[in-house]
Design goal:
The protein is an alpha+beta fold. The chain has one domain: Cysteine proteinases (Cathepsin B, Chain A, Alpha-Beta Complex), CATH 3.90.70.10. 34% of the residues lie in helices and 13% in strands. Strands 1-6-2-3-4-5 form a 6-stranded antiparallel sheet, with helices on both faces. A hairpin with a 4-residue loop joins strand 2 and strand 3. Helix 3 crosses helix 4. The longest helix is centred in the last third of the chain and has 20 residues. About 7% of the residues have low confidence.
Length: 210
Amino acid sequence: MKAPAEEQVEAIVLTASTGYNDRRCGAVDPAAGTQVGLTCGLFAVNHCLGRAGMRTLAVADFRRFAGDGLYPEGDFDDSGLRRNLARLGCSFDMVSGAEHQELVRYVDGAGTLSMFFGDHALGCVIHTPRPRHWVALVPAVRGAGVTEVAWLCDSLFARPFALSTSDVQSMFELMAVSHLAAGDAGASQLQREQHAAGWSACPILPAPYA
């Protein structure tokens, strides 16, 4: 995993329509260019929307529509993200077990991962348990000499990270193993659901696919 070249970064960071840490959301540190407060869920959604050329969301509206998916501490759970996506006609489904590997099993001739095939795949939000955090995985901006297939967008950083096919496949394989191990350990249904929510990948689908 590496930071993209300067000219590649400009394609996503300096073009407002792509939405990387889009300052218009009202939650970006003007000096650092990174998130302010516990707003990573907002940014993960915005990274996917912006990369797909859709309008990004403001933090005040995001909090309002999150409902009880907004924690007292100020961050968001999956229901808060889902409610905000629903008002745009979008949805996401939490992937479980071996389904993780199916999302990244294939890469086409243009260097597109299977999770991004077609015009219906906006991106994928990923939740990490320790620390509790939301990030996004979006298709890399294609161009001459670009070999990366995806960009990992983390609002704690001013620039995205470029991932190769093997980087992404390794990440999703680890998620699959983690989910399957929880199921094999004799955990209750509630414990398995809590584990899945803690370390999860959620592809975003727009209407009419939502």
